[in-house]
Specification:
The protein has 11 helices and 9 strands. The protein is α/β, with parallel strands linked by helices. The strands form 2 sheets. Strands 3-2-1-4-5-6-9 form a 7-stranded parallel sheet, sandwiched between helices. Strands 7-8 form a two-stranded parallel sheet.
């Protein structure tokens, strides 16, 4: 799909980060957009910015928790009604949250909530919008996985199970659709997006959605393991209390957004260029390319505690979308 002008796009998780970047760049290209988010204060700001970019392009904002199937069904019906259409051309399954790190000792409700948003949000959206993609003359589904879709880790010392399991599922689902679409709907393409460290508010928004008042839901044992990992990395945190470790983690969430090597707008540009080129696999960020190469080169080493240091992989390699 070389040209987005007068096409219709659906973007989940459009309130901040890559989702907002995608909405604004699509509008700039003349593409009509329906976007949703669970945090409407963020989404209303996206809508305001989109209207500033081009008030003549139709953009609609919808409340939708992609972790709830009925919400997605309602969202799809609103898209049909408000855009007066039986088809869409682009589906960006971008919404996601972090959380549910520990499977052995972590809270089950947070694990399942994270998995539902990051995997079932993609699956249910694909189910609901696939007929509208097939009804178009030209369609493309773009599913956001992560580097954690091929490396289920944040490095030694931190469990990262729910998010990684969901992102592996998104990657596998997207790859399996390549042949399925080629056989049954060859005018519809699919891409899987695997960002590295992108400057988004996913960590901050995840805390709001999970209702933990922006405090990471980590046990004292988790905090002690994180502290020991930092000590092993040479950080002077020997005398830190659990509350000080929590505060440092909060600061890291802000740094994740503000000091990322790739901005959300840059990531959106890379994704849209990949769609124009009909690439099914879109790595976002130099760190994603380095990590992909390192894991492929030495897969048996990938989960050793010092893997990132030995492979000279710099920077955070974790959450992306939102």
């Amino acid at each position: 799909m070389k040209d987005f002008k007068d096409k219709i796009a659906v973007v989940t998780g459009g309130g901040t980060g890559m989702g907002r970047g995608l909405v604004l760049q699509l509008v700039q290209a003349g593409c009509h957009v329906a976007t949703c988010d669970v945090l409407m204060d963020n989404l209303n700001e996206t809508l305001r910015l989109a209207n500033e970019v081009d008030p003549d392009v139709k953009v609609t904002a919808h409340t939708c928790d992609v972790g709830i199937e009925e919400d997605i069904k309602r969202f799809a019906e609103e898209v049909r009604e408000q855009h007066e259409t039986d088809h869409i051309n682009l589906l960006f399954n971008n919404a996601g949250i972090g959380g549910g790190g520990g499977f052995v000792n972590g809270p089950r409700d947070q694990w399942e909530r994270t998995f539902a948003v990051c995997w079932y949000g993609v699956y249910w959206s694909a189910r609901e919008f696939m007929p509208m993609l097939v009804a178009s003359e030209e369609g493309h589904m773009i599913n956001t996985s992560s580097v954690n879709g091929f490396w289920a880790s944040l490095g030694g010392g931190i469990s990262h199970t729910a998010y990684s399991a969901a992102k592996f599922a998104v990657k596998g689902f997207s790859e399996s659709l390549i042949t399925d679409l080629r056989l049954n709907a060859p005018h519809v393409k699919v891409s899987v997006v695997m960002p590295g460290h992108i400057g988004t508010s996913i960590a901050i928004n995840s805390a709001r959605i999970l209702g933990n008042d922006m405090e990471p839901t980590l046990s004292d044992a988790d905090l002690e393991r994180i502290k020991q990992t930092w000590i092993d990395q040479g950080l002077p945190v020997h005398n830190f209390t659990p509350d000080q470790i929590r505060e440092r983690l909060r600061e890291r969430r802000n740094d994740f957004r503000d000091r990322a090597p790739t901005t959300a707008d840059q990531a959106a540009t890379i994704i849209l260029n990949g769609v124009r080129e009909e690439r099914w696999r879109i790595l976002v960020g130099d760190d994603a390319h380095r990590l992909d190469e390192a894991v492929r080169e030495a897969p048996e080493e990938a989960y050793e505690p010092d893997f990132t240091q030995r492979r000279r992989l710099l920077g955070s390699m974790s959450e992306d979308e939102d």
